[in-house]
Write a structure and sequence with these properties.
The protein has seven helices and ten strands. The longest helix has about 35 residues. The N terminus is likely disordered. Strand 9 and strand 10 form a beta hairpin. It has three domains: about 100 residues, Tetratricopeptide repeat domain (Serine Threonine Protein Phosphatase 5, Tetratricopeptide repeat, Alpha Horseshoe), CATH 1.25.40; about 80 residues, Immunoglobulin-like (Sandwich); about 110 residues. Helix content is about 45%, strand content about 20%.
Length: about 300
Amino acid sequence: MTVLAAAPVLAQPLDSVSREAATALALAGLEAYEAGHYEEALDKLEKSYTVARVPTLGLWSARALHKLGRWLEAEARYQETVVLPLPEVDTETQQQAQQAAQAELTALSPSIPQLVLQLDGATLEQLRVTIDGKVVSSAETVHRLDPGAHRVEGDRGDARQAADVQLAPGESRTVVLRFPSGEAAMAPAPAFQLESDGGGDSWLRPAGWTALVLGGAGIAVGTVSLVLAVQKKDEIDHDDLCRSNECPPSRRELVDSYDSRRNLSTAGFVAGTALVALGVTALIVAGDGSESPSAQAVFSPSFTGIQGTF
C-alpha cells in the first residue's frame, strides 16, 4: 500500500532542526513499512507523530499497529486520527488521510475478537480477574482483545481458576471459570472453555482423529470377520449333514463358529461406523487447521480401514 505516502506536513510551528528530524523519521518509517519491517516502522512513525500530530502520520502509525496484531491500539489511533485538526497547508492530503483512516476504522472495529467471561460457583464481585496478567473490571463480562493467545485467571481467596484461549479475527468466545462452593471449595476445580463462535477447540481435533482411527480399525475387524463368516457359511452349505439351514448336534461347533464370526462382523461395522461419524463430527466442530492431518475411509479387496497423513 502506497497511498498517502508523501512526506508529512508538520502542522505545529517547529524550529528547522526539529522539523527536519521529524520529517526524516516519518520518511524512514514509511520505507520500513513498505519493506514489511513493521516494528521499525512503528518506532519511527511514533516518534515523528509525537512531534507532529497530523492525519498522515496517525494513519500510517495505525496501519503499523494493525500489522503487528495490536488491533485495539490501532483502533484507538484511527479514532484519534479522524478528529485531528487539519493543518493550514497541504489540507487536501490530510483530508484524504482522515478519510482513509475512517474507512479502515470501519472495517477494523467489527473484526476485533471478543471474550465473554462467565462464572460458575462465584460472582464477579468475589473475584480478582486478570487477562494476560492485567486486572480487569469486575463489572465487565465482555472484553475486546487483540487476536491471538490469551490467559484468563480468576482468584477467590486461595482458589484460583485459569483458562487459555486462542482468539481469531471476528471471533466471540465464551470462557467459563468454575469455582466450587461449600466443602468442595477445599479441592481445586477445573476451568472449562465452553463455547466458541468460530475457531476450533484444542481437544476436539486429536479426539476426532483418534475416533477416526479406532473407527477404521472397527470397520477392518468387521470386514475380516464378514469374510470368515462367509467362508464358514459356505462350509456349512456344503456339509452333507446340514440341510435347509439346519445342522445336527454333531455339527454344533460349526454353527457356533459361524454365528460368532457373523456377530463379530456386525459389531465391528456398527462400532466402526459410529466412531468414524463421531470423529468426523469432532473435526468439523474443531474447524480447519493450517497443517491439519488428512484421512479417508478405504474399502477395497486389498485394504479396509483409514488411510491418510497424521
